[in-house]
Structure formats: C-alpha cells, structure tokens
C-alpha cells in the first residue's frame, strides 16, 4: 500500500541568507533546509524543532506555518509531504554533533542557492525559499494536533 512520507523543514533567514545543510546522499553532496521525518508520537511542530537542532545544532522555535508541499521522486512511488515552518532561531550549541550524513550547516543567499541548483536534494528547497520571500505564512493554529487536544 502506498503511503507518503511525512516530513518537516525549517525555513530560516537571517540578513538575506538562509540556513541550509550540506548532506551526503548516496555519495553525493546535497543541499536542503534543516528537514526530516516526523517520528511516531511526535507533533509536527516538535519534529521541526528536533530536526533543526539535530542537523544544525541551533535551537528553533516555529512561529508560523509556511505551507504544505507535495513531491514525488521521479521514477518512483516515493512521495513526500513537507510541512514547512518559519520562526525564531536561537543559539547554536557548537558542542553538539550533527546527524549522520550532515557535513555542515551553512548560510546562503537565494542567488547562491540557485547557483548550486545541481546540488538541491529536491525542488522543494527553492520553492520554500521563494514562498518565504513572497511572504507566504499562516498561523500555527491551522495545524490541529488531535493527539495533544485529547489529553
């Protein structure tokens, strides 16, 4: 049975630069926002906080839902549903080790991101940046977490 992969990402901009990660995927260096899968029992917002910390060593507090993105890997049945967030970047803990496969966290302008298009992990990277720059944003309240509402 087909099931999409539920993922999150943090779209973080500071002084015209976006926080990205360089990660090694099947031997190739790829660029992506801090992103990853939602774990069982975890809220979507908490997943975004955790993934950002694990991949960049920065704390991150989502303050707005940027959008939901769907992408199917060409030639496969692997589909990703990406919940993108913007928010407030906190401190970096340089003593933390980054997730396996993450080579570095780096700050790039949109032009620098476009210039490295051949390294994008997916077309979602630039779509999220462009939507952020266009001001796309929704209150976190549009997300309803019934697991937590029931408690």
UniProtKB/TrEMBL annotation:
Keywords of the record: Hydrolase, Magnesium
GO-annotated molecular function: nucleoside diphosphate phosphatase activity; ribonucleoside triphosphate phosphatase activity; thiamine diphosphate phosphatase activity
Catalytic activity, EC: 3.6.1.-
Enzyme class: hydrolase
InterPro entries documented for this protein: NUDIX_hydrolase-like_dom_sf, NUDIX_hydrolase_dom, NudJ
Taxonomic lineage: Bacteria, Pseudomonadati, Pseudomonadota, Betaproteobacteria, Neisseriales
Domain Nudix hydrolase: 1-130
CDD domains: NUDIX_Hydrolase
Encoding gene per record: nudJ
PROSITE patterns: NUDIX (PS51462)
Family statement: Belongs to the Nudix hydrolase family. NudJ subfamily.
The protein's assembly and partners: Monomer.
Keyword Membrane: no
Cofactor(s) named in the record: Mg(2+)
Originating species: Deefgea piscis
Record-given protein name: Phosphatase NudJ
């Amino acid at each position: 049975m087909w099931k999409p992969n539920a993922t999150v990402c943090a779209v973080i901009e500071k002084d015209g630069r976006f926080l990205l990660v360089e990660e090694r995927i099947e031997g190739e260096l790829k660029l992506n926002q801090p992103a990853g899968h939602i774990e069982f029992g975890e809220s979507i917002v908490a997943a975004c906080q955790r993934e950002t910390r694990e991949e960049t060593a920065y704390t991150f507090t989502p303050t707005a839902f940027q959008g939901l993105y769907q992408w199917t890997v060409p030639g496969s049945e692997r589909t990703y549903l990406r919940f993108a967030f913007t928010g407030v970047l906190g401190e970096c803990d340089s003593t933390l080790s980054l997730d396996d496969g993450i080579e570095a966290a780096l700050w790039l302008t949109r032009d620098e991101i476009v210039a490295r298009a051949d390294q994008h992990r997916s077309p979602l990277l630039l779509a999220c940046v462009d939507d952020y720059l266009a001001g796309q944003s929704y209150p976190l309240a549009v997300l309803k977490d019934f697991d937590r509402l029931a408690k």
